[in-house]
Write a structure and sequence with these properties.
- The complex is a heterodimer of chains A (403) and B (190).
- In chain A, 8% of the residues lie in helices and 57% in strands.
- By secondary structure, chain A is mainly beta.
- Chain B is mainly α.
- Chain B has seven helices and one strand.
- Chain B is globular and about 50 Å long.
- Classes of the chains: A mainly beta (403), B mainly alpha (190).
- Chains A and B meet through β8, β9, α4, β11 and β12 of A and α1, β1, α3 and α4 of B.
Chain lengths: 403, 190
C-alpha cells in the first residue's frame, strides 16, 4: 500500500510538471494559439505478485514530444524494477530471499513527413548481473491512398550475463541477438483493420542462467519423480551431481502475429493471435482478446482475456539422468534446464482496465488516469517443485498532454 | 483484398511455415573428469581434498546442507550414513569422499573435464575455484586465497595429481589438524 501511494505521488508530480497550461488556466486567460508541438508525459506504477513468492514493483516515467500531425515524434522512457524473490528455485538450493533492482531506459524517434517513414530506437537495461544494450531501425510505407502500411525493421541487442557481486571481467557470458520483422497493416473498411507481423530472431551466445543448477537422477530413480515433486523428495533422491544449466548456444525464433481491430458503436474489439516456433522446438500460441468500450466521454473500460499454450523445448525433461562411471567418467545430458518457461505450460489470464479522463473541458482526455488489474493462472505440466502459479498485476498510471 | 496483398500475405505465411525445427545434436555428453582414484596409487586420491573441503566448507551452516548445489558430507558437518553423527567417526568416510568427489566434478562437468584435459590449466575457469578464492561473490567469503595451501590442494585435484601435503597443511590450525567433537546421536548410548 505504501508503495502504491508513493507511485501515486510520483505520477501526480510528473503530471503537475507536464501540464503547466492547465495550472495557469485558473489565473490567466486561455491562449487560443495552438502550438505545432504536442507533448505528453505519464507516470505509472505497476505491482506484480505471484504464488511463487516473487514481487516486482515497477515505477515508469514516459515522455513523448512530437508535432501535431505526428510527422515526427521522440519518446523516452525510464523504469525501475524492484524485485524481491524467494521462489521455489531459490529455496530448493537452501538459499535465502534476494532482492535486486533493475533500471531500464529507452528512446525512440520517428520521422514520417509523407508516405515513407523512418524510425530508430536505443535501449539500455542494467541490473547487478545483467547488462543489455540494444538498438534498432525501421521503415514504413503507406500505400493505396494511405489506407495500408507496410513496415520492416531490424534490431540488434548485446547482452552481458554475469553473477551478482562479481565483476564482468571475472565472470560473464555474451549473448547477441538480431531481429528482423516485416509486416503489413490493412484497412479493410471504415471499421476494420487487419495486420500481420512476421518476425525472425537469431540468438548467439550462452544464455544459460549462471545460478541455475539442475538436479540429476539415476536411471532407475528418474521415472519415479512425479510432476511437482517436492523439494525434500528431490534433494533426498537426486544424485550428488548437480550441474549448471546448459542451453544450446544458438537459437532461431520465428513468430507470426495477426491482429484484427473492429470498431462497432461505442466500442472496439481487438483480437491478437501469435504463433511461435524456434529451433529448440518450442511451439507456442498466444491469443488475446480485448474490448475497448467508451462508457462515456470521460470513461473507457477494457476487459481482456489471454490464453497461452506452449510445448517444451526438445531437451526438456522433468528428471534428467546422469551416469557416474568408473575412473571419473561421467555422462550427463548435453543440454539441460530447469527454466519453467522452457517447459510445457498453459496460461490463462484475464483482467480489466479503465481510463478516466479527468482533464478540463473541452478536451478532458488531456489528463487521464488509468487503472488496470490482471490475474494469470499458469499450469506447469511437467515440472519439479510446482505445478501451478497464480499471479496478479495491478497498474496505476496518469498521463497528461500539453502543447 | 487486392491480388498484391494476397501474394504478400501468402509469402509471409510461407516464411513462417518454413521455419525449420533445429536438432540440438547429441543429447548426451560423456566426460572424463579428474579421477577419484589416482592412476598411480591405491585408495582414494580425493580423500585429502575431501578432508580439506569438509573442514573449510562442509559445516552445516554452509555446504553441509542437503539442498546445496555443492553438497558436502564429512565429519565436520552432514553425514552420509544415518548411523553417523558430526565427529563420529572423526574422519571423512570413503563413501563421503566419493559423494563429495561427484558433487565437485558435477557442478560444471564440461568445464571440469576441459581443465583436467589441459592438465589443470587455467583452473580459474571453474566457479568452485573462483568462489573459494573470493574472486566471485561467495557468501562464505574468501576461503582459500589464491596461492594458499587450500587453493593448491583444490587446484591440484583438477590437474589429476592431488597435492596431498598442501591439503594436509590447509587443515592445520596452530600446527595441529583439529578433530571434530563427537556428537552422539540423540537417544543413542555414549
Amino acid at each position: 500500500m505504501r508503495l502504491q501511494l508513493i507511485g501515486a505521488v510520483t505520477v501526480v508530480a510528473l503530471v503537475a510538471r507536464a501540464d503547466p497550461a492547465e495550472a495557469d488556466a485558473s489565473t490567466s486567460p486561455p491562449a487560443p494559439k495552438q502550438s505545432s508541438v504536442v507533448a505528453s508525459a505519464s507516470g505509472e506504477m505497476a505491482v506484480y505478485a505471484d504464488t511463487d513468492h516473487i514481487t516486482v514493483v515497477t515505477p515508469t516515467a514516459t515522455a513523448t514530444v512530437g508535432d501535431r500531425l505526428s510527422a515526427w515524434t521522440v519518446r523516452g522512457q525510464y523504469l525501475v524494477d524492484a524485485i524481491s524473490a524467494a521462489s521455489v528455485d531459490i529455496v530448493s538450493t537452501a538459499s535465502q530471499r534476494w532482492q535486486e533492482v533493475r533500471q531500464a531506459g529507452s528512446v525512440q524517434g520517428t520521422y514520417k513527413p509523407g508516405s515513407f517513414g523512418i524510425g530508430a530506437s536505443a535501449a539500455i537495461s542494467s541490473e547487478p548481473d545483467y547488462l543489455s544494450l540494444a538498438g534498432g531501425a525501421n521503415l514504413s510505407w503507406d500505400f493505396f491512398h494511405k489506407s495500408h502500411t507496410f513496415f520492416v525493421g531490424v534490431a540488434h541487442a548485446h547482452d552481458t550475463i554475469g553473477r551478482s557481486g562479481t565483476p564482468f571481467d571475472v565472470y560473464s557470458q555474451a549473448l547477441n541477438s538480431e531481429t528482423v520483422n516485416a509486416g503489413i497493416t490493412l484497412t479493410l473498411n471504415r471499421s476494420t483493420v487487419l495486420s500481420f507481423v512476421d518476425e525472425v530472431g537469431i540468438e548467439r551466445g550462452d544464455q544459460s542462467k549462471p545460478y541455475r543448477y539442475v538436479p540429476m537422477f539415476g536411471a532407475d530413480v528418474a521415472p519415479t519423480i512425479g510432476k511437482g515433486e517436492s523439494i525434500d523428495v528431490v534433494n533426498e533422491r537426486r544424485l550428488q551431481v548437480r550441474p549448471l544449466e546448459h542451453l544450446p548456444e544458438s537459437r532461431e525464433r520465428y513468430s507470426l502475429t495477426a491482429r484484427l481491430g473492429y470498431r462497432f458503436g461505442r466500442g472496439t474489439l481487438r483480437i491478437d493471435e501469435r504463433l511461435y516456433t524456434d529451433t529448440w522446438n518450442l511451439h507456442a500460441s498466444t491469443t488475446e482478446m480485448r474490448a475497448y468500450w467508451d462508457v462515456s466521454r470521460r470513461l473507457m473500460i477494457w476487459p481482456r482475456l489471454r490464453v497461452h499454450v506452449q510445448t517444451p523445448v526438445s531437451f526438456w525433461q522433468r528428471a534428467y539422468v546422469a551416469t557416474n562411471g568408473p575412473g571419473g567418467t561421467l555422462e550427463v545430458p548435453r543440454y539441460r534446464t530447469g527454466d519453467r518457461e522452457l517447459g510445457p505450460l498453459e496460461s490463462f489470464g484475464g483482467g480489466a482496465g479503465a481510463t478516466f479522463a479527468i482533464g478540463r473541458d473541452p478536451d478532458p482526455s488531456r489528463l487521464a488516469l488509468t487503472f488496470q488489474l490482471d490475474a494469470m493462472s499458469t499450469q506447469f505440466l511437467d515440472d519439479l517443485y510446482v505445478s501451478s502459479r497464480m499471479a496478479g498485476l495491478a497498474t496505476l498510471g496518469l498521463q497528461g498532454v500539453f502543447e | 483484398m487486392t491480388g498484391r496483398v494476397r501474394v504478400a500475405f501468402t509469402l509471409v505465411v510461407l516464411a513462417f511455415a518454413d521455419a525449420c525445427s533445429g536438432d540440438p545434436g547429441e543429447t548426451r555428453a560423456a566426460l572424463h573428469e579428474p579421477p577419484f582414484v589416482a592412476f598411480d596409487g591405491g585408495g582414494s586420491s580425493f580423500l585429502p581434498v575431501a578432508r580439506t573441503l569438509d573442514q573449510h566448507c562442509g559445516t552445516i551452516d554452509c555446504h553441509g546442507q542437503v539442498g546445496r548445489n555443492l553438497r558436502l558430507y564429512g565429519s565436520f558437518g552432514m553425514r552420509l550414513a544415518e548411523t553417523d553423527t558430526p565427529g563420529c567417526p572423526t574422519d571423512v568416510t570413503a563413501a563421503e569422499a566419493e559423494a563429495d568427489y561427484w558433487t565437485v566434478v558435477g557442478l560444471e562437468p564440461e568445464m571440469t573435464a576441459t581443465v583436467y584435459a589441459e592438465r589443470g590449466g587455467r583452473p580459474e575457469r571453474l566457479t568452485v575455484v573462483q568462489k573459494a578464492r573470493g574472486a566471485q561473490a561467495h557468501k562464505g567469503g574468501t576461503v582459500f586465497p589464491k596461492g594458499s595451501d587450500g587453493d593448491a590442494c583444490l587446484v591440484s585435484f583438477f590437474s589429476g595429481a592431488v597435492d596431498a601435503p598442501s591439503c594436509n597443511n590447509s587443515q592445520r590450525q596452530n600446527g595441529e589438524i583439529p578433530v571434530p567433537l563427537c556428537t552422539p546421536k540423540p537417544g543413542s548410548s555414549p
